[in-house]
Amino acid sequence: MTRRGVAVATAVVVAALGAAPAMAAEPSAEAASARQHTERGTLLSVTPLADLSRDQVATFLRTSEIDATRAAHGVRAYRLTYRTVTAQGEPTTATGLFVLPKGGGRTLPLVAETHGTMAHRDYAPSVGEGFGRVAPYLHASAGRAVAAPDYLGLGKGPGPHPYMDTASAVTACLDMLRASRTAAQRLGRPLNGDVYGTGFSQGGQVAMALGRALAGGADRHFRLRALAPVAGPYDIEKAEMPGIFDGRVNQTSAVFYLSYYLTAQNRLHPIYKHPAEAFKQPYAGVVEKLFDTRHTEEEIFKALPATVEQLITDEFREKLRHPSGALLEAMRAQDGNCAWKPDVPVRLHAAAGDTDVPIANSRSCARDLARNGVKAPVIDHGKANHFGTFKAAEPQIVRWFDALERRS
Fold first, then answer.
1. Most buried among 177, 319, 356, 370, by the most CB within 10 A?
2. What domains does the chain contain, in order, with CATH numbers?
3. 16 pLDDT band (50/70/90 cuts)?
4. Residue 288 contacts by C-beta under 8 Å, 6 or more apart in sequence?
5. What is the pTM of this model?
6. How far apart are CA 227 and CA 112, in angstroms?
7. DSSP 3-state of 146
8. Helix residue spans in 285-324 (DSSP H)
C-alpha cells in the first residue's frame, strides 16, 4: 500500500505545458449553469502536465522496472479539478490525473486506475511525477484513456485524506470518471463508455468497490467491462489485521499502516477519544499530526517506532485482536467489497511473498465472489514482494485488457 522502498526514477523529459484556465460553463441559461456547477463530477479545470513520446514513455516504464513492450503510443497527461463530496456528504473538490494516448481509436475506452497508500498529498498521481504515474502511463500508452483519481485530501484537494474509507473513495472515483468524460469530449478524444477497472493495494480494494458501483448502475454513461485489482486489502477484519499480529505483515509496514488507518478512521468512527487510549507515549502526542498529508513517508517512519508492540498500548492491542463496537464497525465498513456478482471477467493479482498485504486478502475476495457464483482466479506472483507484485501484474493486465477489448 505504501510507496516505501520504491525508487522510481523520473529522469524522463517531461514537457510541462503550464496551467490551463478553468473550463467554461456550458452555454445555457443562468440557472442551468449555476445548477451544473453544484453537481458532482462537474469539471472545473484542466491543467496540462506532460506530453511524452512513445520512446519517453517506454524509458520511464523501463526505469521503473516495468515491461514496456505494450507501450505503443505517446501520452498527454492532465490534472482535472472537479466537484465531489466529502466523507460526510458535504460539497468539496478533488483532483486526479487524466491521461490520453497520442493515437488509438476514434473513441476511447477508459481505464479507472486507483492508486495505493500515499501519505503526502504531493505523491498523488496528478502532482507527483514518480510511482503514481507508472500505471496510468502504461495503460494510456496501450491505447486507452486513463482516469487516476488522487482521492479526497490528496493532490490539490482540500482537507484530510479519509484513508481506507471505501464509501468516500468510490464517490471521488465516480466523480473523477464523470469529469474525465467531459474533459475527453472537450479535448477531442471522446470516451465510448467502456470502463476497465484496476488498482494497486489500497486501490485494489477501491477498484472492487468502484466496479460494484458501476455494475449497479451508478452512472448510465459507463459500462464495466473487466476488473483486475492488484494486492488489495479486501478483508481487514479476518486477513489484514490478523496478519499484523501473526507475522504475515512485516513490522515496519504494520506500524505505518496501523497508525494511518487508526488516525484516519477515528475521524469517521469513535474508535478512541484521545490518542493515548490507543498509542503509547511519546507516539500518542505526535501520531495524528504525522498523517496530515504534509509529512513524507520518510518523515513518518523516522517518527514512529520499529514494532507494533512499541506503538500500541497493551489494552488496545487486545481490542485490535478481538475487535468489537466502533472498531469492528470501522473494519466491516471497508470489507465486503467482493461480496457481489460481477457479470464481467475478474482476475485477482497477488503474491505469496507479499508481506504488506498478505495473499489471504485476495483468497478471501475470491471466496466471496465464488459464493455469488463468480469464479475469479487468484494469480499468484510467487515470491514477489508488495511492489514486485505490482511490477509483474501491470503488464499482464494491459495484455488482458487488450484481449478483452478485441473480443468486445
1. 356
2. 30-234+338-407 (3.40.50.1820), 236-334 (1.10.260.160)
3. very low
4. 263, 275
5. 0.90
6. 10
7. strand
8. 287-290, 297-303, 308-311, 314-321
Phi-psi region of 154 (alpha: psi -120 to 50; beta: other; left: phi over 0): beta
pLDDT digits (tens, 9 = 90+) for 383-394: 999 999 999 999
Residues 6+ apart with CB under 8 A from 123: 3, 130, 131, 132, 154, 297
> Max alpha carbon distance in the chain (Å)?
62
Q: pLDDT at position 362, please?
A: 98
Q: Which residue do the cell numbers 496551467 mark?
A: 19
DSSP structural state of residue 20:
P
Pairing of strands 145-149, 91-101: antiparallel
Three-class DSSP category at 98 = strand
| Set of cell numbers at residue 32 | 442551468
Instruction: Give the type of residue at 375.
Output: K
Burial bucket for residue 76 (CB in 10 Å: 0-12, 13-18, 19+): buried
pLDDT category of residue 193 using cuts at 50, 70 and 90: very high
Helix (H, G, I), strand (E, B) or coil at 111: strand
* Residue 23, helix vs strand vs coil: coil
- Look up residue 286 and give its amino acid: V
CA angle 224, 227, 228 (to 5 degrees): 155
The three-state DSSP-derived secondary structure of 236-295 is HHHHHHHHHHHCCCCHHHHHHHHHHHHHHHCCCCCCCCCHHHCECCCHHHCHHHHCCCCC
- As a whole number of angstroms, the distance between CA 89 and CA 155 comes to 20
Element (H, E) at 75: strand 75-85
Comparing C-alpha atoms, which of 367, 397, 304, 301 is closest to residue 4? 301
Q: What angle do CA 254, 65, 383 make, to 5 degrees?
A: 50
Split at pLDDT 50, 70, 90, the class of 374 is very high
pLDDT in tens, 67-113: 999 899 999 999 999 999 999 999 999 999 999 999 989 999 999 99
As separate numbers, helices (DSSP H) first and strands (DSSP E) second, the chain gives 14, 9
Between the two ends of the chain, the Cα-to-Cα distance in Å is 32
In the numeric block, which cell numbers belong to residue 406? 478485441
